[in-house]
Amino acid sequence: MATKNKTKLYMVSLGPANWELVTIQALKALQYCGAICIPTKSEDHSFEKSITYKIVKDLMNEYGFDKPIIPVYSPMNFKKKDWQYQVDILVDSIDKYDSVSFVTLGDAAVYSTVYYLLDIIKKQDKKLYKNSVVIAGITSFSYASSKVKKPLCLGDNRFELIPLIGKEVPSTKVYMRPKIGMKTDDINENGTLYTFENLNFEGENIQKGKLEKVRKYMTLMIDFIKREK
Ligand SMILES: C[S@@+](CC[C@H](N)C(=O)[O-])C[C@H]1O[C@@H](n2cnc3c(N)ncnc32)[C@H](O)[C@@H]1O
Q1: Domain with 109 in it: what CATH number?
Q2: Is the distance from the beta carbon of residue 136 to the nearest atom of ligand 1 less than 6 Å?
Q3: What is the domain range of residue 214?
Q4: Total-model pTM
Q5: Res 198 pLDDT > 80
Q6: Which of 89, 121, 123, 209 has the most CB atoms around its CB within 10 Å?
Q7: What is the number of the ligand 1 atom nearest to the C-alpha of 17?
């Protein structure tokens, strides 16, 4: 996936702050793209405090490659104008370098700027949206659990991810470990539900909505919360 030449924009998850926790797919995207866009919270666009910059530099040293690095000022104000500014940098960089990687810590699916930027890109440039890929990474909490040798969920337990923002918020729900043949009527769709079967092996199927009955053990469903865009 990482080397499809139609891809113009790689949204690359780097894992939790250590180059050895970067996936091979992420490494390939960084090696393949024309330039790497790295977010920085510093107003002077320096990377002194940037963890992502350090991971990328460590990878370049370890694997002997070099790419132009483009700072993307990301003040974390959750303002649309800031995300638009970041998208403008990505678009300009793609014009110049043909393809770019934008990097993010942990996994892009978890509280990352990536999806704010993709929302804008989806509206303003459908072709670029189509030619973008998101590369998954190790989350901080998967890694944290491994450090203390404690599972996030086991047996009959479930796992909750709670943002410490002082209010109740709706959840995206992941359903897994079904029995083959079980009916799915009890699963309420509150947002947008997708079914994923046999990911990355024979019989892979990704579809919107539920199957009436589960066909394979390797099935998971995600009910993504509806977001305002
Ligand atoms: C904006 S979220 C990004 C989460 C990230 N995308 C992930 O997959 O883990 C930032 C929060 O993730 C957690 N986090 C991320 N990296 C961490 C690390 N290296 N050590 C501890 N906590 C971390 C902290 O709770 C931090 O406030």
Answers
A1: 3.40.1010.10
A2: no
A3: 173-224
A4: 0.95
A5: yes
A6: 121
A7: 19
